[in-house]
Design goal:
elongated, single chain, mainly alpha, 3 helices
């Protein structure tokens, strides 16, 4: 079983990962509209990777004997102005999500939950 605080944060991380997938799909949609299929494909692949990450947390929480809580999230930005803006936002978002993963690692260490 996961400690409650760690469980809550992992369930939140699932939401962040699924939001990331939607955010990247919004970026892909911009590129599709602009007939930039290579860039669109790049972000479609990134979206799939984020869904994969969410499911890894989903399976881990279940494997630990806990309940997964799926929650909603805000709509992703979709009024992009340029390719440069999108890549800047994507980099900022990746840094944010990486920071959240680092925070989970620190919490797991504090809680001495070594399987995490």
């Amino acid at each position: 079983m996961l400690p409650n605080k760690l469980l809550d944060k992992m369930n939140e991380q699932i939401t962040h990962e699924f939001f990331s997938a939607h955010y990247y799909l919004a970026m892909a949609a911009f590129f599709k509209k602009e007939d930039l299929d290579g860039f669109a494909n790049f972000f479609i692949v990134q979206a799939e990777e984020e869904r994969f990450h969410a499911m890894k947390f989903f399976e881990f929480i279940n494997d630990q004997g806990n309940e997964v809580l799926i929650t909603g999230f805000k709509d992703p930005k979709r009024d992009f102005k340029s390719t440069e803006e999108i890549f800047t936002l994507a980099l900022e978002h990746e840094k944010l999500v990486s920071g959240l993963i680092n925070d989970l690692m620190h919490l797991a260490q504090e809680e001495k939950h070594y399987p995490s």
